[in-house]
Amino acid sequence: MIKSFSKINLFLNVLKKTKNGLHNIQSSVMLLNLHDKINIKNSNKDEIKFVGRFAKNINKNTNSISKTLSALRKHNLINKKIKYKITINKNIPVFGGLGGGTSNAAFLVKYFLKNNINNKLLTIFEKIVGSDFRLFFFTQSYQQSLKNIFKFKKNYLLYFVLIYPNINCSTKEIYSKIEKINAPLKSSILKISSKNKFIELIKSQNNDLQTIVEKKHEKIKKILNFIQLQKNCLFSRMTGSGSVCFGAFLNKKSSSQGLKVIKKKFPSYWCILTKSI
Fold first, then answer.
1. Within 10 A of 157 (CB to CB), how many other CB atoms are there?
2. How far apart are CA 270 and CA 177, in angstroms?
3. Cβ(68)–Cβ(108) under 8 Å?
4. How many Å apart are CA 204 and CA 142, to the nearest integer?
């Protein structure tokens, strides 16, 4: 069984577009203990099956797994004659900003290539699967731009309460509504060696996509404001292009208390406690 970990954007700055038309971004990213489970077996024919709570919104014919499997064969990275039955238990919300689909592709590649992947292969797969493909090769990283991602020398343990408000956000649609472009972050986040200083810098930033989603879905702002009111909550924010909202906490006790209150307030929403890895 392969654990396919989700990611969270602690902040996200939208910069100018690159030559290929994509917006450059800066972000601090952590992988979370929340993960999908992937099982692979040899078979007479290829069969890709999605199960679990968040399986229903996935295209069964064209998805990150089918695209990855096809690319692995096209580039002679795996035996073309061997077929597989791949079952993915979807614990990560789809269209929530947690990168579940890209994570599935990344951890499938890691499995087949035994973690032996170079920059050329990363470029191939990010074109096929998504620009956030590289993020899943670092447990905690600073994305200086789409192409430049740096591993933190020191990992920080943070706890997160996640809420998925039953809204599917299209990344393409959200980015198409960007009007304001920010200047690059001047602070050298990679040089920070203190957890307190790291948190203070993160708190001073924002998710530039958040206001776009809030305008379309008013309840996002209400959820984030309520999360922020919880005792010992460091900050609340939306991850990626949404719609998953989160509150960050320093310890399990505070986050567990926050989870109880938030679940009571929003009983119809998926809500869990997880942590950085």
1. 12
2. 27
3. yes
4. 16
User: Do the bridges between strand 83-89 and strand 47-51 make them parallel or antiparallel, or are there none, so unpaired?
Assistant: parallel
Q: Are 71 and 124 in contact (CB under 8 A)?
A: yes
State mean pLDDT over 230-242: 97
Q: How far apart are CA 13 and CA 44, in angstroms?
A: 47
Rounded to the nearest 10 degrees, how much is the dihedral formed by the CA atoms of 272, 154, 108, 237?
Answer: 40
What whole-number distance in Å separates Cα of residue 219 and Cα of residue 180? 22
Alpha helices (runs of H) in the chain, residue ranges in sequence order = 64-74, 100-113, 119-128, 171-176, 195-203, 210-216, 218-228, 252-265
pLDDT single digits (tens) 10-56: 999 999 887 777 788 999 999 999 999 999 999 999 999 999 999 99
Nearest partner of 48 among 57, 61, 37, judged by Cα: 61
Could you give the 3-state DSSP secondary structure of residue 132?
Answer: coil
Distance, CA of 7 to CA of 27 (rounded, Å): 12
- Using only C-alpha atoms, the chain has a radius of gyration, in whole angstroms, of 19
- Let me know the angle formed at the C-alpha of 106 by 273 and 101, rounded to the nearest 5 degrees: 60
How many other β-carbons are positioned within 10 Å of the β-carbon of residue 174?
19
Give CA separation, 61 vs 67, 105, 185, in Å: 10, 15, 40
| Contact between residue 97 and residue 241 where contact means Cβ atoms under 8 Å apart | yes
Give Cα separations from 80 to 16, 83, 113, 210 (angstroms): 41, 8, 14, 43
pLDDT of residue 249: 98
Q: How many CB atoms lie within 10 A of CB 188?
A: 9
What positions carry a catalytic annotation? 7, 132
